[in-house]
Amino acid sequence: MNTRAAKPAAKAAPPDTVPGRVHFDLTTVRLFIATAESGSITRAAERIALAPAAASRRMKELEAQFGVPLFQRLPHGMALTDAGRTLLAHARSVAHAVSRMQDDAQAFRHGDKGVVRIAACTSAVLQFMPQDLQRCHAAYPGIKIDLQEINSQGVLQAVSRGVVDLGIYESTQGGLALPALHYHEDRLVLVVHASHALAARRSVRLEDFLPYDVIGLTQGSAISTTLARMASEAQHSLRMRIHVGSFDSMTAMIAQGIGIGLMPQAVAQSFAGGQAFRRLRIDDDWAARRFTLCHQPAAAMSSAAMTVAAMLCPGEFANRES
User: With 0-12 CB in 10 A as exposed, 13-18 as middle and 19+ as buried, what is 58?
Assistant: First the structure.
């Protein structure tokens, strides 16, 4: 009788679960982005034409493959976790890259057609882009523009992550190791209510208006950042207790005598041109500003994006190409 212990049966080979390897399709990427933007798996499913049950299953499988939760399940929706916020930027890059592939294929099939994604600061959008994009549309009606209006810091982030083709920002806010062109220039003015103590003056310097309450724009805006830097260099405190999200809102605050505000001259003429306001020249060099257009490397740009860059900065682009 054989008394030797029987060898244990060999275990079945585990399925293909190589650490770090994930498998998902573009539908899942679009679902992840839509869920993050809408805060609801149900609304996200409707947006991309999926059944809610299928969408929920896809999201759970995606989280299982990455091994981290991407969302917090709340009673009235879904909120991104820290991991989800980080991976969302990558998901948007993937979706953008695929869209660029489609645009390039369309451009090769039909010529100068496609979608060009631009991120631009508010000052550039209000002052320069309507005229520049009108020229572009007249010359190349087959090119569509997807324009995101954000502050200068947001522009730099969008370009560095590759989620836009072109970015336009105020030049003092930094730069990227990417091709850059001079775009436009403007000058800041001080806007005050007609009853303000400074209203009788025609021009001011930094030290003249720092003692007063200033209405600031949201964090990351070039104007607020520049003003804070100049006040610090002058070793003077900056009285900026209210931040607003637009020049419209800033004008409304000034109209009520809550504070004063800085705007580009052309914007001030449009938003604060009535008799209730006074626009004062700022006699400091920092009030003159330059805007930069930066773009992805030429090898990563669609022909449509290169065309729009050349239309927005014709002289600069021609000089660089020559």
Answer: buried
Residue that has been written with the tokens 């806007």 in this structure? 191
- Tell me if 279 sits within 8 A of 199, measured CB to CB: no
Q: At what angle do helices 152-160 and 222-233 cross, to 10 degrees?
A: 120
Q: Are 161 and 90 contacting, i.e. CB atoms less than 8 angstroms apart?
A: no
Q: How far apart are CA 245 and CA 227, in angstroms?
A: 16
85/55 Cα distance (integer angstroms): 19
Measured distance CA(125)–CA(150) in Å, rounded: 9
Query: For the segment 30-79, what is each residue's pLDDT rounded down to a tens digit?
Result: 999 999 999 999 999 999 999 999 999 999 999 999 999 999 999 888 99
What is d(CA 305, CA 113) in angstroms, rounded to the nearest whole number?
10
Q: Is the pLDDT of residue 235 over 70?
A: yes
CA torsion, ordered 75, 78, 82, 84, to nearest 10 deg: 150
Helix (H) or strand (E) holding 73: strand 71-74
The reported pLDDT for the residue numbered 107 is 62
This prediction has a pTM of 0.66
3-state secondary structure of 219: coil
Range list of H helices, 67-164: 82-110, 122-127, 129-139, 152-160
DSSP 260: B
- φ, ψ for residue 147, nearest 5 deg: -105, 125
Q: State the average pLDDT over residues 122-150.
A: 94
